[in-house]
């Protein structure tokens, strides 16, 4: 299993890498050329700037059983189709049961914005959000290690 991080704007990148290191799981951070990231533990892959370039790179090398950390519902959907797991920055696991609803909500919000309306954006991130993510990822990785 690899822990793969959609690194462009990911607020929990450092937390995820620290937990990957704790559980001795390989970590990969994928970013575009606008984000210069270095990490002593994780492998950093930098791709050209372009629409969904990071997403396409992640999907090109991820394997069944990998965990992808992403805020992107579209990428999460692709990960699930390849039998991987996906988790958002708040520790919510994307599942076959919730992904369709999340994609529909994103589509509706996009249509509202196109029509000149406003859709509610994310609230300001708090320390409690980071702690919730950390606890959720720790539980997930603990379960994976117990299966090994």
Major sheet size, sense and barrel closure: 6 strands, mixed
What count of domains describes the coordinates?
1
Unreliable sequence segments: none
CATH class: Alpha Beta
What share of the residues does DSSP label as strand, in percent? 15-25%
Give a structural overview:
This protein has one domain: Rossmann fold. It contains five helices and six strands; from the N terminus they run E-H-E-E-H-E-H-E-E-H-H. It has helices at residues 13-22, 53-61, 73-81, 99-114, 127-147; strands at 3-6, 27-32, 43-47, 67-69, 85-87, 93-94. It has a six-stranded mixed beta sheet with strand order 3-2-1-4-5-6, with helices on both faces. Strand 1 (3-6), helix 1 and strand 2 (27-32) form a beta-alpha-beta unit. Helix 3 runs antiparallel to helix 4 (99-114). The termini are close together.
Using brief descriptors, characterize the structure shown.
globular, 148 residues, 44% helix, 16% strand, 5 helices, single chain, Rossmann fold, alpha/beta
Please specify the SSE layout and strand pairing:
Elements: E1 3-6, H1 13-22, E2 27-32, E3 43-47, H2 53-61, E4 67-69, H3 73-81, E5 85-87, E6 93-94, H4 99-114, H5 127-147
Parallel strand pairs: 1-2, 1-4, 2-3, 4-5
Antiparallel strand pairs: 5-6
Helix pairs in contact: 1-5, 3-4
